[in-house]
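REQUEST ID: PR-0412
SUBMITTED BY: lab tech R.K.
PRIORITY: routine
TASK: structure prediction, single protein chain
INPUT:
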Amino acid sequence: MLVSIGADGTIKTRPPKRPITLRHLLTHTSGMGYDTWDADIFRYVQVKGPPRPASMEVLSTPLLFDPGERWAYSISIDWAGLMVEAVSGMRLDRYLKENIFEPLGMADSGFRITPAMRPRKAAVHVRKDGGGFTATDHELNQEPEVFMGGGALYSTVGDYLNFTRTLLAGGGAILKPATVAAMFKNSMNDGVLCRPLKSHIPARSTDMNFVDGMKWGLTFMINPEAFPGRRSANSLTWGGLANSYFWIDPTNKVTGVWATQLLPFYDARAVAAFEDFERGVYDGL
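STATUS: complete
OUTPUT:
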């Protein structure tokens, strides 16, 4: 249901004009959102109360707009994960292990922290106002009600680089070349572009102003123009909440992964370091 919240907290709803498709979910044009970057969802959570983490409560927020009409980064990939479970008959953790992690040799990737992984688990750090960092003992629920397809994996730079290199090479053991080719193409409706999102939880993220004018494929952000000294036009990219980033450049056949464990997301100094790393890669070609 679409929702609007009045100044007095009154919640009004109406059904969407069209059903949500898998393409809507994969392109973040479903009408869903995150409380971090959407004022209406933020207010909705304030009125309803915080949901239980990794539960269906988290995925039960209302729609912000009719599916396909615009882009908003959202819980859509979590719903896509539930669709994978429904079609495959497997929980998402098992499906990813059997169909991606094991074929690609990604032994350090999964929703659960294995005994071999635990001694190497990095702490998430929070930047302090007066300088320096505070390390947190953050750990995701190891037995969640819902495996969140949009962001709950543990992994390593090496493992994730195996994944991005596989896409760069056309899919390898996990995807058909035609599927990978489709992932590199804009899959949003005509006239729809990514637009900046203002953060409503500054401790979690800064404003997502870097997305302005970008396009979205299945399921990565695409830069229509080249970044001088860095990736070519029509490269794929995205990142993780604790300032981890990657790109896949099909023109120059280059991919890179940069990972920190630092909040808030899109921290200016973390991003600057990532961009320096990317320029260094291209300088060395």
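NOTES: The two ends are 50 Å apart (CA to CA).
REVIEWED BY: pending
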